[in-house]
Amino acid sequence: MLLLNPNITTVLVPDLHARTGYITSLIDLEISGKPVLERLAEGSLQVLCVGDGFHSEARGAERWRRAFKEYRGGFRRHKNMDEEMMEGLSLMAMVMILKASFPEGFHFLKGNHENVANEEGEGNRPFGKYAWEGQMVRDWFLEFPGEDMLKSWADFEAALPLLAVGNRFLVSHAEPRKFYSRERLIEYRGDDELIFDFIWTGNGEAEEGSVNLMLEHYLGRDSPGALYFGGHRPVKGLYALRADNRYVQIHNPERYIAAVLESGRDPDPFRDIRTIDGEKA
């Protein structure tokens, strides 16, 4: 569990999916007259990413199909797969550099795509949508960077937090499938059910009232006007509302979207969610 600084502005970043251009646009985004990068450096702002660094998904669907042919050929040729991995690794390099530079100000949650080993268990499930993406990435790591790098990357993913607690808001990659107490969440390592429920829950799969219970438990007296944010499932426009309008999804893979949440006031999706170029909902 990640406890955010309650006294500074928070920028929420949706699923990234190898979009390096998002990060470069984000750090140049001006908020209250200063670029995000400058405000990170002065400690007046924090950035929270909801996860999913790898896999270009629909944006790279044709490339995934070409890469699948390379995979079936034992990676004797691997131009398309290399291009896919270059984007994903470049994106995650940006994430790691920002985290190392601003350890208290830049954060990245675990999403369902943080499963480089394509494992089944400990909340992870093998992934494939446009090809056998999960297995292809695993085998590419084994073939090129090697097994030690694969293990190190998997250890990094396993250490990522699942839930962020902010000033009048909560954030996880997906909608929580059910309520989880603070005590159980702190001991989440290896808890297959709990991890799965924070990174894989689809629309309509959460128990009724789970979002409200989470907000009340973690935010207490600040919960009446609070909201729960996540990504995972694509939306049209800038956001979608679920769970009695208290769960806000911000994952539109075709647009650069961010939620800018000022401390000390209740979040408002219409006011706070924007595209990087400033367009409002």
Describe this structure as you would to a colleague.
The protein is of the alpha/beta class. It has one domain (2-275): Purple Acid Phosphatase, chain A, domain 2. Helices cover 36% and strands 16% of the residues. It contains 10 helices and 13 strands. The strands form 3 sheets. A 6-stranded mixed beta sheet has the order 1-7-8-9-11-10, covered by helices on one side. The chain has a 5-stranded mixed beta sheet with strand order 6-5-2-12-13. Strands 3-4 form a two-stranded antiparallel ribbon. A hairpin with a 3-residue loop joins strand 7 and strand 8. Helix 3 packs across helix 4. The chain is globular, with a radius of gyration of 18 Å. The mean pLDDT is 96.
Give the SSE string.
EEHEEHEHHEHHEEHHHEEEEHE
**Shape estimate:** globular
CATH level-four homologous superfamily name:
Metallo-dependent phosphatases
The helix content, as a percent range, equals 25-40%
Summarize the biggest pleated sheet: 6 strands, mixed
Low-confidence stretches: none
What class, by secondary structure content?
Answer: alpha/beta
Strand order in space, largest sheet: 1-7-8-9-11-10
Question: What does the radius of gyration come to?
Answer: 18 Å
Strand content: 15-25%
**CATH class annotation:** Alpha Beta
CATH topology: Purple Acid Phosphatase, chain A, domain 2
End-to-end separation in angstroms reads 30 Å
- Number of DSSP strand runs: 13
Number of structural units classed as domains: 1
CATH architecture descriptor name? 4-Layer Sandwich
Number of helices: 10
Mean pLDDT: 96
